[in-house]
Design brief:
By secondary structure, this protein is α+β, with helices and mostly antiparallel strands. It folds into four domains: 189 residues, Jelly Rolls (Sandwich), CATH 2.60.120; 231 residues, 3-Layer(aba) Sandwich (Rossmann fold), CATH 3.40.50.1110; 125 residues, Galactose-binding domain-like (Jelly Rolls, Sandwich), CATH 2.60.120; 114 residues, no CATH class. The protein is built from nine helices and 42 strands. α6 runs parallel beside α7. 39% of the residues are buried.
């Protein structure tokens, strides 16, 4: 086996199965029958103990005839702590429609083992679908059988034929399943039982998120009790720029979907944590809030100049409800981020001033705004200009230090600084609570939520405002309990709206039909609405001496004209800064240099030199870049350009309300949308949600 292309480690195997009285093979789950277990640790050293044995366990099982007992014995001075338990299947499994895989685990002896993830591999390991464990299963000590689930609905794919691109694999021919674990520090002697591996279904997403929230709340508040209580009651101006967020958190979102928060910035933002503190506080303040999901994209010492690219290609396509910015750089670049988000999303924005770092102590008691990481008075000004919620975090951090008789000093265990620049977990708590204090209901806000997001009912047909209306144009439509439905072909609904995005809320049914979508007289597939997704670093890109590979390369591109949906690859041609751009459809589309403006031959793609970063040490606002090109020959970057429309809406399903985004990234202006029924299936439409960003 070639595995992942890394040197093969120790391999041990056993066939686990049971035979009936007639000699026929009985398979109760994938871990039994003719399946073969092996291991892969990706290192070999005869001087270091590394032994894995697999045996059937007949007297301790969950289902079938036996479980599989894995005995792991590994020396302390090993080069890696990663171990892969591989299940080679006797014949390929079709998991293309599977939502998840369940299995049962039991630690019999030993401690400290941790579950990492799982790989579902095609023949020859040519393609791998990498999935996360849905549950945070506790394998730290011997205990009882525990059921855990591997989520197949959100996988990352590695295709070895194109390792520098995001791969595609539908899992129709899985021949090997790899269960990946992290060994504890020191010598390991662990006995693990595995059983009951089979497909399963997932609970609805809101249900999964609520269950995770209960668990997160319990753990967070237990941890939070270690620190002093704080007065987080709202002040007169708190929340004035968060009208939409407060409405959604207070009243929920129907049909239910998560309240999505995106955080982007440098390690300062990364050290705020995974969003647990924010989400737990928000759930306490807003008991009827929808599930809260926090995502982030971070880099090492990355200033606002490069974060701008992430705003365009990471955040905008996600259309979040709230964007959190916590970082460093020039306020002129921060303002460009505001403008980008205000032109392309309806998200609220919240920005916090940076905390006190070690070398700021010279300003203590003199000027609380003084820091070389930003111009805080200018930050206040542009936040006010663009209606961004500004958190006086620096002042409030200083006040907290005074209230608790603490100093600006590095104290990872009991202080607010982990090191000379980064906040500790305690410091992150203080910052998160300074932020969450701003989420307060008010009588009046800086803007009316309906000016950015509003809902049109298809049952009305009357004008909602002077510019927007819904028209049902056929007697075949019936209107009942707020839903317009028909089973006749060629019936139409016309929606006049102003904005850059429109969603449909409908009702699915077993006899549901379909409807075609047109916009401004064109079929949806002919409308010019495109987005570029995140730029993905190649798996073989040169590793830097400091920081990560994500700190090197283009942080953003520009979409131009005559766009064709496809995957684009930027391939570095030499060590001097030259590169080539190739489209999966367009083909070779020009050569450029990292330090010069570039427009592809076809005119589709622009690559601005100011968004190409040259490593973690490239922080232009602090000190001039030294001119060193850190990219190496063969470095590759890929991104997808895709249409942001639905040409056909399918109303067939189990039943119940659903939401679908019809268009995104439209010109922010007046449009006319038409929905035209096709065939004789039932089409049931309830609402249209309109999104109009405040900037054009």
């Amino acid at each position: 086996m070639s595995g992942l292309g890394i040197k093969l480690g120790i391999v041990c195997s056993i066939c686990v199965g049971a035979v009936s009285s007639t000699g026929a093979q009985i398979v109760s789950d994938w871990s039994e029958g003719e399946s073969t277990w092996t291991t892969q640790s990706y290192w070999e050293d005869e001087s270091i103990r590394q032994k894995y044995t697999f045996t059937p366990k007949l007297d301790d099982r969950v289902m079938g005839k036996s479980s599989v007992q894995v005995h792991m014995q590994v020396g302390a001075k090993r080069p890696r702590d990663f171990v892969e338990l591989r299940l080679a299947l006797p014949r390929p499994l079709d998991l293309s429609r599977a939502e998840a895989v369940e299995l049962w685990l039991k630690v019999v002896d030993g401690s400290g083992l941790k579950a990492r993830n799982a790989y579902f591999c095609s023949p020859g390991f040519k393609k791998l679908a990498m999935a996360d464990w849905l549950d945070e299963i506790d394998m730290s000590a011997p205990g009882q059988w525990q059921r855990t689930v591997v989520d197949l609905t959100n996988v990352r794919v590695l295709d070895k034929a194109t390792p520098n691109q995001a791969g595609i694999y539908d899992r129709h021919d899985v021949t090997t399943i790899c269960l990946n674990f992290q060994l504890p520090p020191g010598a390991a002697d662990i006995t693990l039982l595995i059983d009951g591996m089979q497909t399963t279904t997932l609970p609805p997403l809101p249900e999964r998120l609520r269950a995770a929230a209960v668990k997160a709340d319990r753990g967070f508040w237990r941890w939070r009790a270690k620190y002093p209580e704080r007065d987080l009651s709202p002040r007169p101006n708190d929340g004035r720029n968060l009208s939409l967020s407060i409405r959604k958190l207070t009243h929920g979102i129907v049909p239910e979907r998560p309240f999505l928060i995106w955080g982007i910035g440098p390690s300062y933002l990364n050290f705020l944590g995974d969003g647990t503190a924010l989400a737990c506080h928000l759930r306490q303040r807003f008991p009827d809030a929808p599930p809260i999901v926090y995502r982030k994209h971070v880099g090492s010492s990355v200033p606002w100049r490069y974060v701008l690219g992430w705003a365009k290609q990471v955040v905008v396509p996600e259309q979040p409800d709230l964007v959190l910015l916590y970082g460093i750089g020039l306020e002129s670049d921060l303002e460009k981020i505001f403008q980008t988000l205000r032109r392309h999303t309806t998200a609220d924005i919240i920005v916090a001033s940076v905390h006190w770092k070690g070398d700021d102590v010279k300003n203590w008691g003199k000027d609380e705004d003084a820091t070389n990481f930003g111009d805080i008075p200018e930050m206040r000004r542009i936040c006010e200009k663009h209606g961004v919620e500004f958190v006086e975090n620096r002042k409030e951090w200083a006040q907290y230090l005074r209230d608790q008789n603490m100093k600006v000093e590095v104290d990872p265990d009991d202080g607010l600084l982990l090191d000379a620049v980064h906040q500790s977990k305690y410091g992150a708590l203080v910052i998160n609570e300074n932020i969450v204090r701003h989420f307060a209901a008010r009588d009046t806000y800086a803007y009316h939520p309906g000016s950015r997001e509003r809902r049109l009912s298809v049952t009305r047909g009357e004008s909602v405002s002077g510019k927007e209306s819904v028209t049902i144009s056929s007697p075949s439509w019936t209107v009942r309990e707020g839903v317009a439905s028909t089973a006749a072909s060629s019936n139409r609904i016309k929606v006049r709206f102003t904005g850059n995005r429109i969603d449909l809320i409908g009702v699915k049914s077993p006899g549901g039909g379909k409807a075609q979508i047109m916009l401004d007289g064109l079929p949806a597939e002919e409308v010019s609405c495109f987005l570029a997704g995140p730029i993905v670093c190649g798996s073989n890109n040169a590793r830097p001496k400091s920081g990560s590979v994500r700190d090197i390369g283009p942080h953003g591109i520009a979409l131009r004209e005559d766009l064709v949906p496809q995957t684009w690859t930027i391939l570095v041609a030499d060590d001097e800064g030259n590169y080539e751009l190739t489209g999966s459809v367009t083909g070779a589309d020009g050569k450029g240099h990292m330090l010069k403006p570039f427009v592809s031959n076809s005119g589709q793609i622009g690559i601005p030199p100011e968004l190409w970063r040259h490593g973690a040490g490239c922080v232009p606002f602090l000190h001039p870049w030294d001119g060193t090109i850190v990219n190496r020959t063969g470095d590759a970057y890929t991104f997808n350009v895709h249409r942001t429309c639905k040409s056909v809406v399918d109303f067939h399903g189990k039943g119940g309300e659903f939401r679908i985004n019809l268009f995104q990234a439209l010109p922010n202006q007046a449009h006319v949308l038409e929905l035209i029924t096709v065939g004789d299936g039932k089409v049931a439409v309830k609402l249209f949600d309109i999104f109009e960003p405040p900037l054009r």
